[in-house]
Structures are given as C-alpha cells and as structure tokens.
Write a structure and sequence with these properties.
The chain starts with a strand and ends with a strand. The strands form 3 sheets. It has a 3-stranded parallel beta sheet with strand order 3-4-5. It contains 7 helices and 7 strands. It is of the alpha/beta class. The protein has helices at 10-16, 24-28, 49-57, 81-85, 100-110, 119-122, 131-139, and strands at 2-4, 21-23, 40-45, 59-67, 89-92, 123-126, 146-149. The chain folds into 2 domains: 2-92, NAD(P)-binding Rossmann-like Domain (Rossmann fold, 3-Layer(aba) Sandwich); 116-152, no CATH class.
Length: 152
C-alpha cells in the first residue's frame, strides 16, 4: 500500500509494486487521535510532520517506521502510545554521517543485488545548465522521484 499527495500518481505507484494507493488525506485522517487503526507493517516516510505522526499511530504491532525527510515539518505531533502499546520502532535514515566504508558497501549492493526495479522511472539526470529549470519544476511539484546533477 502507498500513500501519496498526488492522486494522479496511482498508476505509477502501482507499477512500482503498490497493491493499493490512498491519498495523503486518507493517511492523516483522524490523526488528532492518540492512536489509529493498524494499517502498516512498515513505513518509509519522506514527509515528516503530521504524515509521519499518522503513519506511526497506524503502524501494526512490532512494525518499523523509517524517516528520511521533513518537507512536511520538523515537528512530530504525537504521544508515546504507539511505541509502548504496539512496540513500534522509529528509525531515522541519515547518509550524511554514515561512515564512508558502510556507505560504499550499501552503494555497491544498490547497484547490484539490491538495485530497485524501475529505477529509470524515479531518477532524472540533469546537467548543471539545466538545473535552474529542474529546480523550478521541483518547487512547483512537477518532479517525481529524485534528480541527480551530472557533473562530468
């Protein structure tokens, strides 16, 4: 299952493997409550804020939530119930301080045995001369996935 802020991306998310796609409003529905109905076994959150809090509150017993973004907010409006009553784990993902040898091992696996399917659909390369145009598209919500700046 996948949650998205862009309903028109449902077909794309299904191509990546989502069996069901729900809107961001459905993800955060009822998020003012201390706990939500169990929905997720695991979560990869790139938004933060209310979306991350709702994901944690609706993660199943023993589930894991990873957080690697904060575009929604740096605040986390929630209580400790999901952690105590459901044993949910919240794991931050940071590549900045990750040791270089560990990073190289992961990159090697990502280019080999862990290489994601449909990678070409979620990564766009741009040369520095085209960067300004791509930045404007990102700011307007017109870019899917990640943009890599090709320097050489």
């Amino acid at each position: 299952m996948a949650g998205t802020g862009t309903a028109t991306e449902a077909a794309f998310l299904a191509k990546l493997g989502a069996t069901e796609v729900i809107t961001r409003a459905e993800v955060t529905a009822g998020s003012e409550r201390p706990m939500l109905k169990e929905r997720w076994a695991g979560v990869v959150d790139v938004v933060g804020g209310e979306t991350l809090a709702a994901a944690i509150k609706s993660t199943r017993y023993g589930g894991v939530v990873t957080c690697c973004g904060l575009v929604g907010s740096i605040e986390l409006p929630l209580n400790v119930y999901p952690f105590i009553l459901r044993g949910v784990s919240l794991i931050g993902v940071d590549s900045v301080n990750c040791p270089a040898d560990t990073r190289m091992k992961v990159w090697q696996k990502l280019s080999g045995e862990w290489k994601p399917e449909h990678l070409e659909d979620v990564v766009t390369e741009v040369v520095p001369e085209g960067l300004e145009e791509k930045i404007q598209a990102i700011l307007q919500g017109g870019v899917r996935g990640r943009v890599i700046v090709k320097l050489a």
